[in-house]
Design brief:
alpha+beta; 6-stranded antiparallel sheet; 32 strands
Length: 790
């Protein structure tokens, strides 16, 4: 199928051409002596109707005198006449009279054509002439050997004279040019061969090069190629249309560069990457090289310096990945254009910028732009755009584009700087709120993992803690605050500190959560409009106390998942713990659950992020964690890694915290219990038993202080209790002395006056021990003291 089916209707022959015009012959008297078939087609009169008759009969109106004058002309004349058609119409026609007297015949040849058709042909002819002489579209004709045959005025101007290229191959026109469109063969000879062979035109190819008339400036043309054939369909060659679209092409490039800059620059929230992103976007479309110089403070996330000399103490960015990143110092003298740009906060153009002091290996530049990186009226650094291989200077549009790119980079660098600062502050906050090293305990072996969902900031709302308690016991807690980031971390920090404070009061888990619930509810009221109340009202917490003397573990939960327990044999079960309401809601009480754990039992405390995500339900996650705990004999660190490696791939939706505890039991030989009846004479007996027990433990050097502490504590119990007094000595990391009675009165440390008979016992205990305190039980209280080994 023809690409253009109506091509046959396009005819560039003149309507007055002998092959087309209506032809007639008039004798010396103006009578019609010849009448062609074309005349019959135009006017409808047959030869029989007009031959031998005056031609004036075919004219509309009184034009006989004019016709007589035209027949007697000595040279060809043309005019416009109204002719009568056989059907009664009047046809306005263009008529040419050509005398034949020079041939010895007194006759006139008349050619006529419809005036409207002639005017259309003349317009086509004018168009062709305009394309050849006035059009900005370059037209070039090549023969079948792809050599130049003809070019219009536009081509002549671009080539600085077409005559010198006539007969030369197409490759000689722009020897260093190249096609930048890639949807056709990039070689011009291949394109021409394809067009002449197939007849298929190739249109809209972008060609880049330097015209002989303007060898300094690089141009871009849109080129199209069409086959040329004669009236018989034989190949004559082809012609090329070329339109200089340099300005439009560069405008499109600038627009696409801005679009790409909007997508890429500043997306990383990293100062170094943002500098590299500016380089990636601008090279090579805008410049051959882009340099970014920043003060050290900006790279480190601090405020840019003020008041210092412009151009001093800058660091040049190198590398486009963190692994490649490095810096090199650079400074500019006060008279340099770089220093001027930094001092004024404006773009500075230099046609031939010198190398800055300290710059090594910089290629010689034809032109350069120095653009300050400005944001919020602060100068963050300097961006230098250079051209070395491209000799074209930076035009006004390109200068505006460089400023726009520098502004975007400055915003990205400032955001990255602020993020770096906030990230550092958040990490400091997180380190201050979470334990860096859990204290070693005889009661348990511990390992933990903390994985925040907000991996950009690195902080979240989960917390955990291990709290040494009296009597070799240990408190363990894990909690979860709704949300991520700094707000959740701040709420977490307050709650963790509160839990630790309440735990050191030796409250049982249910009582501790009850008090914590009241504090959270009270704390959330004044914060109803500050944006932090959501975190305060979405808190879960689990608190447990483990006693290594008897293996008893007591825990309570405020909306938190119960722990998973694996005994020494590897049997795994979820604790039978019914969580109470989350903290801050109130209403329902919290209940303790007691469980006796054998030595070597494994307990997993965790938050939702360990067992739940968008793709799996919490039951599947708990089963997955329980399966990991069946490897009970593995080191705890390895178990932590196994548990988190089992998480589904991809970004987390919640913080994940895992605290693994392996329980230990104290050696029974390291615990000594003695029940003393309420008799003051038993105080001496208690001192004697203490001395013997310490001798058996090899701690005789501690006997004097220990006997004095035991004496005071037992005496205090005998004085206020109504029943027997229990004495317990524990050899752990220190010597623990505990005296329990059935009284609920709280002992107070006070400074006795000279005339007071008592009040010095607890003062002595405090002086001789490293820690002491009181904890309350269902049957009374226990006063305890810890004595360091000598």
């Amino acid at each position: 199928m023809d690409r253009f089916p109506n091509t046959a209707n396009v005819d560039f022959h003149s309507p007055l051409d002998l092959s087309k015009a209506a032809a007639a012959v008039l004798d010396a008297d103006g009578r019609i002596s010849g009448w062609g078939a074309s005349a019959q087609r135009l006017l409808g009169h047959s030869p029989e109707d007009v031959l031998g008759k005056p031609a004036g009969r075919l004219l509309a109106g009184a034009s006989g005198q004019r016709l007589s004058a035209l027949c007697k002309t000595q040279r060809p004349r043309s005019t416009v006449l109204d002719l009568c058609c056989r059907d009664g119409r009047t046809l306005r026609a263009a008529v040419t009279f050509s005398p034949l007297e020079h041939l010895g015949v007194a006759a006139t040849v008349v050619l006529a054509a419809e005036l409207e058709a002639l005017r259309g042909w003349e317009a086509q002819l004018a168009m062709l002439q305009g394309m050849a002489t006035e059009s900005t579209v370059g037209l070039t004709i090549f023969d079948t050997d792809m050599r130049v045959v003809w070019g219009n005025v536009s081509t002549d101007l671009e080539l600085a004279g077409i005559a010198q290229y006539i007969g030369r191959p197409a490759a000689d026109l722009f020897p260093e040019g190249e096609f930048i469109s890639r949807h056709h063969p990039p070689d011009e000879d291949q394109i021409m061969e394809h067009v002449m062979t197939t007849g298929e035109p190739i249109m809209g190819m972008h060609y880049r090069g330097r015209a002989p008339a303007d060898p300094v400036r690089e141009h871009v043309w849109s080129c199209s190629y069409h086959r040329l054939v004669d009236a018989r369909g034989e190949l004559l060659g082809l012609f090329e249309e070329s339109l200089d679209i340099t300005d439009r092409y560069r405008a499109q490039e600038r627009l696409s560069l801005l679009v790409r800059a909007g997508k890429r620059i500043g997306a990383s929230l990293d100062v170094r990457r943002t500098a590299a992103e500016l380089v990636d976007v601008a090279v090579p479309q805008l410049a051959d090289e882009v340099l970014v110089d920043l003060p050290p403070a900006v790279i480190e996330g601090r405020q840019p310096p003020t008041g210092s000399a412009p151009g001093h103490s800058l660091l040049r960015m190198h590398g486009r990945t963190p692994e490649e990143f490095r810096t090199s110092p650079v400074s500019y003298p006060p008279s340099s254009p770089q220093a001027l740009s930094l001092a004024t906060g404006r773009l500075v153009v230099d046609a031939s910028p010198p190398e800055a002091p300290g710059e090594v290996g910089s290629a010689a530049s034809h032109s350069g732009l120095f653009v300050p990186l400005l944001t919020r009226d602060a100068v963050l650094g300097l961006a230098t755009f250079r051209r070395s291989s491209n000799p074209d200077p930076f035009g006004p549009e390109e200068q505006t584009l460089a400023v726009e790119l520098a502004e975007r980079a400055a915003v990205g660098i400032d955001n990255a700087r602020r993020y770096t600062s906030q990230h550092a502050a958040a990490l400091v906050l997180q380190r201050s709120l979470l334990p860096q090293h859990l204290p070693e305990q005889s009661a348990v072996e511990v390992a933990y993992r903390y994985l925040p969902a907000d991996n950009r900031v690195g902080v979240g709302g989960d917390w955990f803690d291990l709290i040494p308690l009296s009597g070799a016991r240990v408190g363990m807690t894990v909690g979860d605050v709704v949300g991520h980031g700094v707000h959740a971390a701040a709420t977490m920090g307050r709650l963790r500190a509160t839990v630790r404070t309440l735990a050191l009061l030796d409250l049982d888990p249910a009582e501790l959560l009850t008090r914590l619930d009241g504090l959270v509810a009270q704390d959330s009221e004044p914060r109803a409009n500050d944006g932090l109340s959501d975190e305060a009202l979405g808190v879960t917490c689990l608190y447990a106390i483990y006693n290594p003397v008897n293996g008893r573990c007591t825990w309570a939960s405020a909306g938190h998942p119960p722990p998973i327990v694996a005994d020494a044999s590897g049997s795994v079960a979820l604790s039978a713990l019914t969580p109470g309401p989350p903290l801050g809601l109130g209403g329902l009480p919290y209940e303790n659950v007691d469980l006796h754990l054998s030595s070597g039992s494994l307990v997993a405390f965790f938050t939702d992020g360990v067992v739940e995500d968008r793709r799996t339900d919490i039951e599947s996650g708990i089963d997955r964690l329980a399966q990991v705990l069946t490897w009970q004999r593995c080191p705890l660190e390895e178990l932590c890694d196994r548990a988190l490696s089992a998480l589904p791939p991809g970004p987390q939706v919640d913080d994940a915290t895992l605290l693994l505890i392996r329980t230990r039991r104290l050696d029974p030989d390291h615990v000594a219990d003695l029940e003393l009846p309420p008799d003051p004479a038993m105080v001496a007996h208690a001192r004697t038993l203490t001395e013997r027990q310490l001798e058996a433990w090899g701690l005789s050097e501690l006997s004097f202080n220990a006997e004095l502490v035991v004496s005071e504590l037992v005496t205090n119990g005998m004085r206020y209790a109504t029943g027997p007094v229990m004495l317990r000595l524990i050899k752990d990391r220190c010597l623990l002395c505990e005296v329990s009675d059935n009284a609920h009165t709280a002992p107070h440390l006070r400074r006795a006056r000279r005339d007071d008979e008592g009040g010095r016992g607890l003062f002595l205990v405090a002086q001789l021990s490293q820690r002491w305190g009181t904890r309350y039980t269902a049957s009374g209280k226990t006063i305890w003291a810890e004595l360091a080994f000598p």
